């Protein structure tokens, strides 16, 4: 079985082994991610499955440094993927010595929120798992409760990220994963940033090829590269857009990045499209263009999200279904008893 062994040039505590015959579990602009195993060199019986991103060759030093910084973001939370470090390894090639870079993180087995709402309940190996099937059923039967549950878990993760002094800046359904262990996890710290009030500006993140969907989820201040304005409320804006998309079944804006940016600045999110009154209030409060009017913290957002029942004030649909089934069973029993008389 062909394998690739990775060892950091300086830190020899661990070695990482990748079966090169297996297909990658993900691929993006910065690298390709493979399933691997981390082995403790002092105690080889201590092994852990991990995800290893092979950074693409040819990236400039600034991008490599950003990958290094994000790989070393260490946040302990059940709702955030665990980053496990950055590896620099010098290798011999036909062209002489070359430096390779790798990012190691927790291996998550599950399905993205984006794929789940499309009906996918299988992991990257094509296996169905119970948590995904249960949550898809909830999405179809009681969408409002599904939205509250998912958004609540995302906000727990953001609370931990913000508490560690970072903002994620890329919250959307493709970066939220439902795992086979029954967890909801925020992934991909590719453009995460240490909160720095002294920073002034940076090139717009959308120039690097962000998709239209990404632009829709991104707050105006992040989309336009206004560093001094980016804070926790920027991530909370993205959660508000995600709630809209999940509740309504479509995005609130469409068009080119420039058209979306203009719409964000000139038009509020069309919350009237959301059936549930409580969710309308939540989305309106979290996506206000005036950041001072948005939720200030993920905990505040979480508390508001769970502060009221659905606007109808009725029981969840799934409970009505159970009651209906029970009533039919009782009625059927009464009819049967009468027929026996």
Description:
This protein is 37% helix and 20% strand. The longest helix is centred in the C-terminal third of the chain and has 24 residues, at 317-340. It is an alpha+beta fold. The chain is built from 11 helices and 12 strands. Mean pLDDT is 87; it is low at 206-212 and 310-315. The protein has 2 domains: 3-106, 2-Layer Sandwich (Phosphorylase Kinase, domain 1), CATH 3.30.200.20; 110-305, Transferase(Phosphotransferase), domain 1 (Orthogonal Bundle). Strands 1, 2, 3, 4, 5, 6 and 7 form a 7-stranded antiparallel beta sheet that branches. A 3-stranded antiparallel beta sheet has the order 8-10-11. A two-stranded antiparallel ribbon has the order 9-12.
What layout of secondary structure does this protein have?
Layout: E1 3-6, E2 14-19, E3 26-27, E4 31-40, E5 47-55, H1 61-71, E6 83-93, E7 96-106, E8 110-112, H2 113-116, H3 130-141, H4 143-163, E9 166-167, E10 176-179, E11 184-186, E12 193-194, H5 212-217, H6 220-223, H7 232-248, H8 257-266, H9 277-286, H10 298-305, H11 317-340
Antiparallel strand pairs: 1-2, 2-4, 3-4, 4-5, 5-7, 6-7, 8-10, 9-12, 10-11
Helix pairs in contact: 3-4, 4-7, 4-10, 7-9
